[in-house]
Amino acid sequence: MNTRCRKHVLTFQNSLASSHDTLQVHCKSGNDDLGVHFVKFNDPVYNIRFGDNIFIGTYWDCLIQHGPKMDYFLNYRAYTLGPVPRCGQWHTWIAKDVTFRKMSHFNLE
């Protein structure tokens, strides 16, 4: 991990206004399983802070779900280290009713 870089942040926000469902977030990176986290409607965001491993690569795979039986879901790669390492990237994932949106903010050093 590059210790000179600011850590990256993955942020998960629950804005499920019509249903007020609880958002379930489960992210993994290699052997690093963060477990299941629940974000209620309008609760503070759930953040994951991490640094890149430029020798073996860095990625985060996430499963986000909501609904009465968690029947609405998205399983996706939330972050992948690019060909050029960057510092302090901030990726925000917002759950809005049946869709998930991504907003990325890049802070280059």
From TrEMBL:
One Pfam match, given by its short name, reads Self-incomp_S1
What coarse category fits the chief subcellular location reported for this protein? secreted
Keywords, ordered alphabetically = Secreted, Self-incompatibility, Signal
Matches recorded under InterPro entries: Self-incomp_S1
Q: What domain of life does the UniProt record list for this protein's source?
A: Eukaryota
Localization in the cell: Secreted
Q: Which family does it belong to?
A: Belongs to the plant self-incompatibility (S1) protein family.
Report the protein name in the record.
S-protein homolog
The organism that produces this protein has a lineage beginning with:
Eukaryota, Viridiplantae, Streptophyta, Embryophyta, Tracheophyta
